[in-house]
Amino acid sequence: MRSESDRIDDGEWPEAARSQSRTADRRSLALLVAMLLQEMRDSASDEEAHGFFRAIGMRMAQGFVLPEVEQIDRLAGAMNEVWRALDWGHVLIDPVEDGIRIVHFDAPVRMPEDEGGLWPAALTSLLEGVYDGWFRSLGSGPKLHTTLISRTAEKLEFHHGV
Fold first, then answer.
1. In this structure, which CATH number among 3.30.1380.20, 1.20.210.10, 3.60.15.30, 3.40.605.10 belongs to the domain 25-161?
2. pTM, two decimal places
């Protein structure tokens, strides 16, 4: 235990140790995410984990606000600006009889640090939440939801509607 005389004042820290401008690299962040995924697997049910990552996706949608657009191709363009900035692939959206079909290509479905293989399910839940959040922010009613239709290595397909 330190005594009062052992305390280090801010002025005594080397400049590098005081730096607040350092940015974590992608590998260290991926390791952290992998550990969070393992903890989630050990502590929560699949349903709870899905809800947690879906909620994070909804929060992402609030952070990446889409402009109001009149045409669906412009909506896809606005979404793709976000995905391009994150390097998370791209999306095509099409109106269908009972809602909107969302096909997300080239999502970062692999993470080498994720030895447990938990990232694909977490990413799917995240994207489900992002798309649901975006459609809600654009006026989607409470009876409409975004759900996963299919997931392959190449694409994730969602449906927003009844």
1. 3.30.1380.20
2. 0.83
Looking up tokens 């009889």 gives 97
How far is Cα 156 from Cα 103, in angstroms, rounded to an integer?
Answer: 6
Own/partner long-range contacts of 118-122 (Cβ < 8 Å, ≥24 apart): 118/34, 118/37, 118/38, 118/40, 118/41, 119/33, 119/34, 119/37, 120/151, 121/46, 121/49, 121/50, 121/53, 122/37, 122/40, 122/49, 122/53
DSSP annotation of 115 reads T
State how far the Cα of 129 lies from the Cα of 53, in Å rounded to an integer.
8
Report pLDDT digits (tens) over 17-64: 555 667 778 888 888 989 999 998 899 999 999 999 999 999 999 999
Tokens 């009844």 belong to 162
Q: What CA–CA distance (Å, rounded) separates 128 from 56? A: 10
Residue 80 CA to residue 137 CA, distance in Å, equals 17
Instruction: Give the integer Cα–Cα distance in Å for 46 and 33.
Output: 17
* DSSP secondary structure, 37-76, as one string: HHHHHHHS-HHHHHHHHHHHHHHHHHHSPPPP-SSHHHHH
